[in-house]
């Protein structure tokens, strides 16, 4: 049925598709008037794609000033382009969506006469709102690449009109690219372009900085409640850790680094109730810079994630880059860089998406096998030699995110700027 709807949608004239989408607008907004719809249709006409050739500079639009995964992704891309020798610019949209601006932009915005390539590190709903707010001015005369991330097998059908605004689309993983390709029109190429993790620093462990005991095996689980607790699924991680800690008898501590607790007080209260009185589990809600988050990860022995699905899996990739063994659900984007020499993949069953209508409304995702996770985590907690062997193997991980030459070669192929 979905494929038939897509086929019917694509046979509609482009103006009709645009008008239908613009009239629907973003969730939570009232239906648009005919005048508003026509005005926005004119915006789309002015920024219609002309498949301009790539040229410098490269401008990365995103949440550069915000401390969260989306912000870190935009910052990494900008640093990667600079490392490739490309003139790099940045446009920070953090304040536009209400994110606190806590980091200074590393790169300047483009000057009035600079065109080149624009890479919008924002998903289609935010892209559409930004285009409306700016009347499409930043897109005119620039080659526009959308850098979009999605966590399920099928991207939302209401993202389709955003393809009218881009010349091509990049995604942080092959998994996400496959999902986007299913709804992309034939003219729009969709390519996987993972983040350049190799640029991240490798700080030394500093347990004293975070008041972590030296005589325990420390497991780290970190998640942003803005990405929904249903998808991040920390509850399965808590249960698996408790079972593993009891089975291993090893002195261990699970640190749960939570972002977005202030925006989701009920969820946070439920987590606090689940771990109340348990000295082996600690919730941490401190606001950490990217450098301090890396230092916290470096201070752990194991990084755990029993997520239901990931569009990239930034924490797990950062953990591998920092030499940490990882244990995670064996489905979605993270399997692309979690190799068996340094990581443990947890068995799973695919189940229908349920209970997360705010963002993920249909499709399926993984339910990690908590017994399998507990068994594997038990060995990781109790077998110091094996854990050390897993850690040592991280240095041999050849994924493009961890290999400078591979990432630069990929980027030059995707963005041939002389």
Automatic annotation (TrEMBL):
Pfam family, one: GT4-conflict
Taxonomic superkingdom: Bacteria
Name of the protein this chain belongs to: Glycosyltransferase
Source organism per UniProt: Caulobacter vibrioides OR37
């Amino acid at each position: 049925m979905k494929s038939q709807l897509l086929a019917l949608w694509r046979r509609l004239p482009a103006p009709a598709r645009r008008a239908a989408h613009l009239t629907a607008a973003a969730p939570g907004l009232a239906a648009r008037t005919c005048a508003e719809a026509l005005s926005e249709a004119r915006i789309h006409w002015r920024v219609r794609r002309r498949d301009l050739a790539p040229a410098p500079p490269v401008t990365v639009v995103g949440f550069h000033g915000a401390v969260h995964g989306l912000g870190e992704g935009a910052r990494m891309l900008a640093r990667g382009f600079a490392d490739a020798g490309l003139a790099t610019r940045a446009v920070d949209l953090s304040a536009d969506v209400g994110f606190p601006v806590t980091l200074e932009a590393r790169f300047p915005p483009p000057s009035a006469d600079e065109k080149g390539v624009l890479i919008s590190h924002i998903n289609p709903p935010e892209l559409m709102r930004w285009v409306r707010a700016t009347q499409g001015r930043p897109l005119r005369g620039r080659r526009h690449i959308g850098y979009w991330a999605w966590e399920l097998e099928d991207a939302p059908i209401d993202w389709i009109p955003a393809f009218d605004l881009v010349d091509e689309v990049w995604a942080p993983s092959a998994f996400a690219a496959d999902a986007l390709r299913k709804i992309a029109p034939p003219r729009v190429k969709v390519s996987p372009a993972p983040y350049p993790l190799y640029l991240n620093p490798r700080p030394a462990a500093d347990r004293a900085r975070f008041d972590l005991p030296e005589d325990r095996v420390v497991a780290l689980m970190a998640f942003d409640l803005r990405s929904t607790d249903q998808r991040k699924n920390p509850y399965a991680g808590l249960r698996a850790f408790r079972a593993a800690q009891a089975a291993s008898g090893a002195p261990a501590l699970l640190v749960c680094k939570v972002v977005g607790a202030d925006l989701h007080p009920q969820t946070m209260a439920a987590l606090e109730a689940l771990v109340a009185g348990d000295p082996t589990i600690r919730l941490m809600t401190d606001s950490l810079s990217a450098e301090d988050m890396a230092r916290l990860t470096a201070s752990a022995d194991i990084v755990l994630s029993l997520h239901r699905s990931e569009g990239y899996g930034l924490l797990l990739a950062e953990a591998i880059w920092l030499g940490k063994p990882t244990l995670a659900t064996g489905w979605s984007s993270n399997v692309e860089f979690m190799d068996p020499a340094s990581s443990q993949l947890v068995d799973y069953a695919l189940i229908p998406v349920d209970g997360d209508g705010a963002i993920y409304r249909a499709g399926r995702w993984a339910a990690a096998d908590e017994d399998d996770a507990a068994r594997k985590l038990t060995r990781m907690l109790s077998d110091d030699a094996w854990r050390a062997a897993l850690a040592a193997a991280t240095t041999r991980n050849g994924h493009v995110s961890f290999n400078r030459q591979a990432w630069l070669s990929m980027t030059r192929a995707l963005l041939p700027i002389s």
